[in-house]
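Technical note accompanying the year-one report. For the benefit of new consortium partners, we illustrate the data format agreed upon in the data management plan: each record pairs a sequence with a structure-token string. No post-processing was applied to the example shown here.
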Amino acid sequence: MEKIYRNIDVMDPNQRNSLNWEKGKRLLYSGQILTTDFDRGRLNNLEFVLTLVVILERQNEDLTNHIISIQNKIKEVAPTQYYYPKSSMHITVVGCTQFHKQRAEISEERIAKINNICTDIIRNWTAPISLVFKGINVVASSVFVQVFSPDNSYGTLRNKIINELQLAGEDPIMQLDTNDIYINFVRFANREPTELRNIVSLISKLRNTDIGALRVKEIELDITDRVQSSDATTVIGRYILPSI
């Protein structure tokens, strides 16, 4: 059967990240960012998604702590933004559904179907997935760590899951470029001009900083909100990847 999904906008990761940086700087300097509504560190207006993710602290504690140390530097110069806790730092593999206003809108039948699809694909996956973490960047809504898959194994897995979900009648969240991998670790919560300028100044010094590397050991299927809040997350399944 012909594939439904095509990776129609594959861009060299370094080129994409450079474009993101130039655009992100302009948005922060002008204050034209997208803010997320938080109340004392808790996300307002919850929406729920069934999503396949890599939880960073379950993969590599040292790498996670390195990102926390960078996060703390940003927090010193921009304290009123939202900072992901260690337990919420993740890489999205595939948003398996669109976002829903109510958790109950994602039926148990759909959850079981998507869980079975993910289980079948990952159980038969034979290629180890290695990721490299290098450089900090910004987009309109967040500060993120740039992540690279040198052999594109991550994007290949992502494509396969998207294809199978679509063939099963699901509507996964689409990305034009499935090689685009990142970890959001700061979310913009306000447009305070000094903080935004401080963020640009600091990140300009961290654009190419080496953070680390890992081989993905486990992928998790969760129902969660937009920032992977621990109290809004239900783990549906965990899938072990090959270690050799």
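Partners are asked to follow this layout when depositing records. The chain has one domain: 33-240.
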